[in-house]
Specification:
single chain, 127 residues, mainly beta, 7-stranded mixed sheet, globular
């Protein structure tokens, strides 16, 4: 069993930055593929970014490429999402997720492939 707790959400003006953190407990963190997803009102949860077991491979949805960076610190059992140049359309609840297994960018984009989810962190970018 893995417990995930997000932190770092908040309200910023468009163009600003935030860093989300997701702390994990209850498992061997380095054996889990990690992802960030987001969900805004009336929309389905969507993929944002994923990272391989060692952190050497990352993947992003097109709308955040060049602005967001996913990283992980296996010694601290934590995954991060650095968000720069935030836009109003980035406003959503952001969730971190974990699943055990080999990294595949295709699989890591699919919500149904993840076994564990955090409670979510609200990110609001005002215009």
């Amino acid at each position: 069993q893995v417990q995930l707790v997000e932190s770092g959400g908040g309200l910023v003006q468009a163009g600003g930055s935030l860093r989300l953190s997701c702390a994990a407990s209850g498992a061997t963190f380095s054996t889990y593929v990690l992802g960030w997803f987001r969900q805004s009102p009336g929309k389905e949860r969507e993929f944002v970014a994923s990272i391989s077991l060692s952190g050497g491979i990352t993947d992003y949805t097109d709308s955040v490429k060049g602005r967001f960076t996913i990283s992980r610190d296996n010694a601290k059992n934590t995954v991060y999402l650095q968000m720069n140049s935030l836009k109003p359309e980035d406003t959503a609840i952001y969730y971190c997720a974990a699943r055990k297994g080999v990294y595949s960018a295709f699989s890591a984009r699919q919500t149904q492939r993840y076994d564990y989810w955090g409670q979510g962190a609200q990110v609001t970018a005002s215009s």
